[in-house]
Amino acid sequence: MTSLPKASPGTRLGLVIDLDICVGCHACAVNCKEWNTGGYHAPLTDERPYDADPIGVWFNRIHTYEVTSDVSGASDPADARVVHFPRSCLHCEDAPCVTVCPTGASYKRAADGIVLVEESRCIGCKLCSWACPYGAREYDGAEGVMKKCTLCIDRIYNEAFEEIDRVPACVSTCPATARHFGDLGDPDSEVSKLVAARGGVELMPEMKTEPVNRYLPPRPRRDGVAGGAAIGASSLEDAAPEGGFLGWLDKLLSD
Amino acid sequence: MHPAYSIIFFTTASGLGYGLLALLGLAGAAGYVPAERWLGVAGLGLALGAVTFGLLSSTFHLGHPERAWMAVREWRSSWLAREGVLALATYVPAGLFGIGWVFFGSTGGVWAWCGLLAALGAVVTVACTAMIYASIRAIPRWHNRFVPPVYLALSLLTGALALDAVLRLFGAARPAVSLLAVAAAVLGAALKLLYWRHIDRARPVATAASATGLTGQVRLLDAPHTSPNYLQQEMGYRVARKHALRLRRIALVMGFVVPAALSLLTLPVGGWTGAALAVLAALIGYLGVLVERWLFFAEATHAVMLYYGEAGV
Q1: Of the candidates B110, B135, B160, which is a domain's last residue?
Q2: What CATH class is the domain A13-225?
Q3: pTM of the model
Q4: Quick check: B136 contacting A, CB < 8 Å?
Q5: Least buried of A72, A178, B149, B293, by fewest C-beta within 10 Å?
């Protein structure tokens, strides 16, 4: 059934991604590929992996942007900052990828809000990937079906795992703890509190998809520190003239 | 958007077929065209042949064509499924209408009702095809009010041109059909010009900043991968501005101006010369609509490209 579940929102599992501390290491993308190429959507085919034009299915892609506060376009290098941006399925409440599916292969689970593809029903028409504004779906040309992030349903409910490991592969591997997993439908959950505290945002609200995932924007810079170029290391010139080790060194070198 | 030839052929061929079917159904039911056997075979054969060729062509781009039969299931939510349901349903009255015309030499009575139902099915199916594109928010150049009228007008245009050619080939020229083709060309050109004006002037719906949730100017510094992925191959197609403008002119001239002029020329000219002119008008008109449909895809920018360096869509 590709009509969206009408039940009042209960559990809504999703990710909260902290753009302030993501270091852009791509470990989440690599571990996602590693887990999922043996998981629900196995395999995540790579075609011509060692040729000049490799192509493959990934559920998680990390873009790196330069952000300057001056919207007029005259960018001041001192004002620029780099933001690493992991992009994956947002498990939208009003998921357009689900409603366009003609066969019922695409669906959103009423119980936890996860958006999935039932591969045996997928005809490979690609319309769902056209409907998604976020590029969350990637077509597997070798298998002829559409694939997407499953929020690691084969990990998060896996009773063979210790409780602490029942999180998506991208979350478990992040060395900077920039990725958080939890129930965004529950306002008292840890992830919901984090979103409230840090002013978490949804992506492209103008597309009216109501994403579940939230992104935490980079924290504002400290007062008086405009950017990297303006931060000077303390120099010997300004060494305390009244004494101390640096003062002694300054005197020694000045003579 | 990547202009896949199978989809371009599908939407233009089925547009022509349904346009012709709708006009044959209406004209037959009204007794405006003779219920002559070979005219029926040729007219309905061309209409249903184009529709069937289009539907088969649309399955060529599927990853699993053998599962295509499942694509009618979710008609409650999916315009693609609705199109499938209506395309299949329209075969029933169209087939009965054809049986009445070809085997019983009649388009009146109960057969007329079949013709009217086939015409209704044809129009609604084309509207569903248009809505597949017009319903996609992620592609603002498709998600606007001009897209469904353009699809319907171009279906009417190519159908009227084909009907004019078929009627003249069977010596059953009807001036009103030639004039209908001219009117459809004027309507189609006007709608297409409005569409182009709209997409050239519309303010961006989404920007790189809204796509990333960041404030300020957002510029792609480093792409996630070193060779194009599926998203870029399918949705990152770009056509140079100067090429697009030239192709728009070609589409306008071949799709609307030349067919309208040729259709007007056929009015005072009868016989085989008139038939030859009408066939030429139909062929050139169809080629023009092919260019128009190619541009419809090539000029459409998808929101996902905001993550890959596009500033706004």
Answers
A1: B135
A2: alpha beta
A3: 0.92
A4: yes
A5: A72
